[in-house]
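Continuing from the previous page of notes. For each protein in this section, the sequence appears first, followed by its structure tokens. Read the first protein now.
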Amino acid sequence: MGADSVGKDPLRGEMIALTKRLIAHVENGTTDHANDVFREPVTNYTDTAKWQREREVLFGKSPLLLGLSGDLPEPGSYRALTICDIPVLLIRGDDGVARSFVNVCRHRGAPIIDDERGKQRRYTCVYHAWTYDTVGCLVGLPSADAFDGLDRSEHGLRQLPLEERHGMLWGILTPGVPLNVAEWLGEALDREFGGFNFGSCEWFVSYSIDAANWKLAMDTYFEAYHFASLHRNTINLITYNDVIAFDAFEQHQRNGFPRRNVLELRDRPETEWEPLNHMSSIYKVFPNVAVTVAPEAVLISQVLPGPTVDTSITIQSTYSRSPIDSDERRVELDKRARFIRDVILEEDYFLNHKIGAGLRSGANDHLTFGRNEPGLHHFHRMVEEFAHR
């Protein structure tokens, strides 16, 4: 890049500034701090009424990041997932527009699609073969004479709000609720996401991982204080322990983590810097998604409440930022995706289940977040502000 590339590319300038903050922290043995210690009541994790309120408000009526455009690469592509008991079906129509529907036949309530991903131009219920097209219209009705007077236009798939912006798929689980992604993100985060070219990312693989309460699962992503202890032979070999650069973007946040090679940049001109090779930029999209941007891949971790207050599921999806056009590229992506999955499954969430049991034991009446864990402070304050105000 040329000497004035930072000025012409605001995102690059932001990533360089973030990297400089992390270099300073590593050199000085410091990290970003909150103003005080934060105490989170254990009942905020275990109370069923609060959990139900969070499902209804945060997951039922708030914009949710459902995936990237690469989940629906061409007309007829679909992705099915269930969020808080709502079966969601994302389809890219023959007109190229991405839409969201409730994955339920309008005849007798059977699912339209059982597979998680695929491509087809007609969606036929296995029960009585009612058939829908890629824009959700009812186009096939066996024994139509038995349904004299039925208005097909009123029996298309139930549509949910969806907006595709910056190569990201955003939806709301309640029909008719207004959706404005730019407003939800805020000017700064909307601009930052617009610089990453997420629309060119290609989906590679997704894993589903069980965890305890959804907020306990989210807590995993907000700090680096545990790297040297819980991840001493994995993440700690790659990333510095207990060093973070925290920025709030209204209800959302960004956490920067320095990689072990970050100090190599001190002897290089900034015009030669590739910041994402030397630090991790992880966005926590409120209420439930962690977006990790790396040079060659994007990791989307969707944390979804389970059927009870003490359960959740994380859908962890890896997307390639360049074409998956060789066996070598597939091997590389597979190695990366499995590494992250195994760390989360065998280290973070293995302990997460034990923490859930610990909360139910009554040993603690609150959890304590240190000043070196500002992301946790911000997240839990936002949950209270948005769900329980």
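Done with the first. The second protein uses the same format. Note its length before scrolling.
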Amino acid sequence: MMEEQREQRMDLTLFSSKMEQVKAQIGAVIVGQEQAVDLVLTAILANGHVLLEGVPGVAKTLLARLVAKLVEADFSRIQFTPDLMPSDVLGTMVFNMKSNEFDFHRGPIFGHLILVDEINRAPAKTQSALFEVMEERQMTMDGTTYKMDELYTIMATQNPVEQEGTYKLPEAQLDRFLMKITMDYPSLDEEVRMLERHHGNSALLKLDEVASVITRDELLSLRRLTDRVFVDRTLMHYIALIIQQTRTSKAVYLGASPRASVALLQASKAYALLQGRDFVTPEDIKFVAPYVLQHRLLLTAEAEMEGYSPVKITQRLIDKVEVPQ
């Protein structure tokens, strides 16, 4: 038993080394946003899709592109626009004159890491094209199913302020995102450091100069470590109680689904690994819960009129549940 624990700790040392390299490279390009970086890495390690939300200019797209650049894998980017059609995303059947048959030409949704920029700018018809590929990691066209890579992850961005020409994401699609991460403005010190970098230009690392620090196979092996993270049964009960609170609260019209329970468990395990531990604590669950739940809850009209947000409601519901000792 002790030998097995020693081996696991050795694996965590290698894990920590790789994560430190990734964070160092991100820090060389983006000033601040450490919490958002940790959450994005948590979502990717937990094998989940991530939705980045923030006002223009807070480095949402840059962070997604940078994470993809640091992983030696196939990267694809889709810029969502109001006139985007499902075939522009998934691909289309093209008649081959030589073979006298239709060939499938793959769309940009095929790849390992996919950046969907301004995801809320495409209409519902195009949004629904992502349902199958996000949940089942496969795409069906004309009766043929095309499997995605094991690494397959979607990183999407959206702007919460400018609503001209945007479409509300369907609840079924939001539920398929493991996390929704809000990126805020930098602090005063962080903004000064950012300006100094741009002014000096010598300390500014361009995205094109960033080298991959982790391979596809290495990332997959790091993901598999999450399966070995210990979670006490009392903590599983704690997660279930939090989810139950979202379904019974008078402030919530639509509570979290069972998919949210699994997402909260996976995110907690991945975040514990990022903290250098092979076991989950209640603090891990409390930290990731707002980001796992905020986009899955529909508040009542009364709660919205009183100025409550899903994040505030989530925090209140978590505080109501007794923390296991």
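What the second structure shows: Confidence is low (pLDDT under 50) at residues 1-10. DSSP finds 14 helices and 13 strands in the chain. We return to this in next week's lecture.
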